[in-house]
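Extended Data, panel c. Modelled sequence:
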Amino acid sequence: MQRRSSAVVIVLTAWVGASACGCVNHDDRLNGGNDRIAAPLGTISIYQLAGRLDLSVDENSSTMATLTSPDNVVVIYSDPSGAAYVNGSAVIGTGPIWPVGDMLFVSESMESDIGSLLVKRTIAEPLGRIEPLPSDVPSHPNRSCIVIDAGHGGKDPGALSVIGIQEKDVVLDAAMAVAGSLRAGGQKAVMTRSDDTFVELNERANIANRVGARAFVSIHADSCHNPSADGYTIYVARSASSGSLALASAIERQLASTGAASRGVRRANYRVLVRTTCPAVLVELGYLSNVYEARRLSQSGYRRGLAKAITEGIIEYCRETGR
């Protein structure tokens, strides 16, 4: 089969309702079709909003959300005309606030509208007594931990390859290799699962939010009814933050060096990408529906090569962002 060039290709689309192979990504048929969130264009979830403003999501529902920091309380209500309050003061001109599934989405402009009203603590202000966290749980301001998410698991096998291997096994091995390499290099890494366990989508994102992760990387393998479709893909949320885009670009640059075919960086509101407050990407390692790629992904050495590239991309991102 003729192979495409492995040169870096950055493809940013407003919405990817179907993969470039002309079929719906297999993940969209899992979990009751709730992997992707159909939010209006130009909006961000309250989790994305919280991450950009260094706030935590304390309450979340389809009708109300509360975001907090030591000095601020932001309350957002679902309302066609918009209703948001910062420390009791109304935010003017918010625009519509949309309930989508079990969370709220707001216009991207609300980031600056709310940000301008937040109380900014200066270095000169007393911080008071700070109780130490357990050694295995990093503090939120340090953003010192990378969360690695192995897709599927347990009762959810993910895609089944044309040669019989299951996605959940392929991605767990790759994810464990990434986490292991990060730890070997002195980086804190937390896995959403480290064995054949089923973890709900919301809980995967919640893990990253609870530890105040520096970045979230979800690892999957793709499938399509077109057997010639091939290549790895990196997804970011439709209204991705600059941090998410930087992380995706760094991983893309490193994966390109493996010689694997690339489908570039694409946008899609996968649930784990819009429920995390930190920079987040979802990496599809290749197509299990393609015989050539399925055979490669069944080989431990090939998976480890992809894992090494993902690890180096994460390290590059951390170095370039200086965090």
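The two ends are 43 Å apart (CA to CA). This feature is highlighted in the accompanying rendering.
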